[in-house]
Write the structure tokens for this entry.
Amino acid sequence: MLEARGLTRRFGGVVAVDDVSVGVAAGELAGVIGPNGAGKSTLFHLIAGHLRPHGGRVSFAGRDITREPPDRRARLGIAIAFQAVRLFRGMTVLENVMVGAHAWTHHGFWEAFLRLPRHRREEGEILARAERALERAGLGEAADRLAESLPLGQQRTVQIARALCADPRLLLLDEPASGLRAGERERLADLLRGLKEEGLSMLLVEHDVAFVTRLASRITVLDHGRVIAEGPAEQIRDDPAVIAAYLGRSRERADGA
Amino acid sequence: MNRLRRRPLAFWAGLAAAVLSLLVPIALNDSQLTVYVFIGLSVIVVAGLSLLMGFAGQVSLGQAAFYAIGAYTAAILTRALEVPPLLSLAAATAFTAVVAVAVGLPLLRLRGHYLAFATLAFQLIVLSVIGEARGLTGGDTGMPGIPTLSIGPLAIQGQYRTFIYAYVTWVLVAAVLLFNRNLVRSRPGRGLRALATSEAGALAAGVPVVRYKLQVFALSAAYAGLAGGVYAFFVSYIAPGSFPVLLSVQFLIMAAVGGLGSIWGSAVGATVVYLLVQLLQSLGTGPGLPPQLPAILSYAVYGLVLVLIMLFLPQGLLPAIQGRISARRAVSAVESPARLARLD
Ligand SMILES: Nc1ncnc2c1ncn2[C@@H]1O[C@H](COP(=O)(O)OP(=O)(O)OP(=O)(O)O)[C@@H](O)[C@H]1O
Ligand SMILES: [Mg+2]
């Protein structure tokens, strides 16, 4: 489904992502973990098209999309829930989710102006799908509230609902569980499992290593922008390089404090 | 679409305003009707500007240039080329939109006040082109003798000329406001509202951000071109002096007063500001007062109104009033009905 090869991205002197390759097979839930600043979010932005890579290629469903802008990638079936929440202020939760339907709908200014048949048909489909996505994400109650009035954790969940409303083929989830309470976390895990059973391909970034290892079949570990380990979840947990990276970081942090 | 349906109160208020504005011309004398037409034309321009500023988050200080392009296109087509007026009006609207696309392609990459300056520069260029192209436009002396609007043999003239123009303008205003309302509650409308607060979020959801921005820019220009065309037929004489930079500023302030992105607010903002300016001009033109006084007064008032709006009603006049009303009716304090009502 997704195939990223040798991706590199620099910010000034910092190499945020350094020659990273990841892949997601059809129907697979793959995980990415790594300490703070490892380059996980940057990698996601490269895959979704919000950043240009300085090297490497991205292909999706057998097609090279390295030069496609993010809105085109969305139409091709890549949806993303950002770590830094990007919702639309002044719009209700339901309206926010409805925007996600841009990926598979078509009607434009004229059809909306003149209320032409395609507008009417699509609006009905958009509303139905958006309501379904909200229910699945467990946000049915909040549909009519303003998106920005929700707690940050739930705003992340609204992003997931928006992504689901796009009817994607690949879902990128950047720390979807952060800011959620234990019960909400369980719900999210259930949702992701359900989506996986339906055959949706997903790439998941989480700080909560236990959360990822429970869900993902394969995990890629990043540190300082490089892949330091890759393989099945059980194997990754015991990998000395991974333990060193995590321990090293926590020791650095302890020293700094 | 029950969830998105407007509150009944707003609906009745809108209906009452529509009926009232339909009845008002009957009670007006000729010079008052002229003001009524000018207010209507301003509403059309402001309805577009408000979409552009409220939804695409772009500021245009050159809207009067599009007004001028519409007016001159309609005038030249009917007077020099003898194209039927109604067809000229349609052509003027379309041509203005095309110019906006050509100008907008490079300009819309600019953000914030850069676009404002670029559109201002665009207006100055348009005005000097009109001043130079004497053969076509009459240069600085202007174009007199523009025919009136007509459908076949039926021309708007005679005793009821202004009265009929008032209704023509009314119909166009109603159509434009209805168009805007339809647009806002649709797929592209949601896309526009989305890109105003997060371009990255909108792109990720598949919204073609650049194309949409260009389309609202063209739309706002088309509205201005349409209003400009009607203006030319109505006043029958146009000159570069009819489209000063001050007019662009005035449109901008009308949009800000009405509330950016507030559809019915465009009508409120345009009316309030137009009448205020008229009032000050009549005060400033008394006997013994310096002839520059009206101009100075209007600049002063524009500045003052803008500052007051930013200080006290940053979301605009109509949304603020709507917010008051629905806050009183609201049961729960968690939701913010003021903001929800904003787009209705
Ligand atoms: N837009 C940017 N401009 C400059 N530097 C950036 C930018 N985005 C990321 N970086 C840098 O790139 C590196 C990787 O950042 P990134 O956000 O991808 O890490 P991350 O693994 O997602 O971290 P976290 O776990 O904290 O979310 C960091 O050193 C960060 O400071
Ligand atoms: Mg991150």
